[in-house]
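Side project, low priority. Logging it here so it doesn't get lost.
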Amino acid sequence: MNLSFWDIGVIGIYIITIISVGFILSKKASKNISSYFLGGNKIKWYFLGLSNASGMFDISGTMWTVSILFVYGLKSAWIPWLWPVWNQVFVMIFLAIWMRRSNVMTGAEWILTRFGERGGKLSHIIVICFAVISVIGFMAYFFEGIGKFAVQILPWDLTADIGFMTLSSANSYALIIIGITTIYTLKGGMFSVVAADVFQFVIMTISCIIIGYIAFTSVTSEQISTLIPQGWDNLFFGWNLDLDWSNHMPELNNKIAQDGYELFGPLVMLMIFKGIFASLAGPVPSYDMQRILSTRKPSEAAKMSGFTILVLFSPRYLMVAGLAVLSLVYLSPELSSMGESVDFETILPMAITRFVPIGFKGLLLAGLLAAFMGTLAAFVNSAPAYIVNDLYKKYINPNAQPKTYVRYSYLASIILVIVGVIFGFYAKSLNALTLWITSSLYGGYAAANVLKWIWWRFNGYGYFYGMLAGLLSSTIKLILFPEIADIYVFPLILVVSLIGCFAGTLLTKPDSPDILCKFYKNVRPWGFWGPIKKLVKDSDPKFEENKDFSRDLINVIVGIVWQMSLIILPIYLVIHNFKAFWITLTIVIISMIILKFNWYDHLKKADKEF
């Protein structure tokens, strides 16, 4: 890509700015590990929401989303349910409140408030292991994505022979960008991450609007309709996908077959099945959970999660839709000519090269680098908390000086980045990594983390063996059966994990009633807590149990509709389907009105007794 002086200047100014932010905030962040990892619980919820949204606006995910919209059209809006994308709705409606009431620093520390010191120690360790493994997996995912992206957009050949191996340009770019991100994250901690994220989100939003405008004014609905198969512009589906690219780009039929999405109806049912368990389990121990624990109080944790949904999806999909449609209309002949060697994950950088004007190109590239660096920074900041706070401080040196823990946080961050990069050299594709992380690895997380909320008898041993069974089975699947689509293996991994949960629980004694009563009274979850609820009420007759299950259920359904509408709204706009656009906008407004009265107005009571 040929970059003008102005484009290179914009990128350079951005990099200098975010590194400066880290150094400016380093004194504030290095007071203690609470300041370093949680910002001392002093950061405003809306800044945390913008930071959380920026952390989810990564290059690797954007490249993947552009490629699936290009291939699957409107039906691609369902595919992120693999994560599931609507787990954020569960967090917004009730889980953020439950988690923030714990007043702890990490997800592993939170586990001890649920299980105490018996099986809780084993559970504590297994959560740390999961956090580290998932972060390493995401590091590899980022390494693969930023390398593919950078080599397409930056003009320099950075191929290097370092003796024991030859680094491709993609690998060299990835190492440089990851190194810069690590520097500013280490220096400023959570303060640096949030400040940079807010700055990055503003850049990304401007970039999204520019791309959306270019696509909207450069492409007509007639141009699109001549290049797509029947059903591409239809959100809804039957048992089969029924997208036949034979008359347009036959290579895409092979990709659909390789992805395993031809039976789309069963796929979506599996995603809903998995999504309910994965969402009810709560956020995995990473940056999303860290943002929740960084808020000042439970109601703000819920607001932060809702704000993340509001500001993330429509701007992001305005860019995604714009790049996908521009590529479809103007790059289809070139992509088709590549034959079997076509890599649809490179559509995003190709589209930027062709369609974004000089000056704006630098802004957009800075924004996309910002998106990548923001997401990576969030992981670099969150994972070491589990190593330093939950291992070193708890078991090795509990009486060290505050700055000692911060220095060990630096070391833990560096080690995790190095290990993640090493794994990144062996990553096959973004799609393979995405599917393994979302379907197999998280499948092992779901069972134990659902039961911890809703069943009083579930104990620390059940949690440990359930998580262990899930992690082992997901890893075995990755090694021995990589050709099987991960989502189809999720039910089996879930069953194996449930067997571990029930065996570990029923073959050991219940946890201490004191621990269970304290947890139930503090968090106040709904579920099967009958014996514990009775003990709590006996000791405190004024205690009010959680009777919000029905309201939470309604709000979750409305919230999923709201989130899905925010995703497809900009797609309909870019492809000039104005009838569907106005219908979707109406649904967005109605769902927000319902959530205002049935969710937002009830948040004040979330802070009761906090």
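Brief comment: Strands lie at 160-161, 166-167.
Revisit when time allows.
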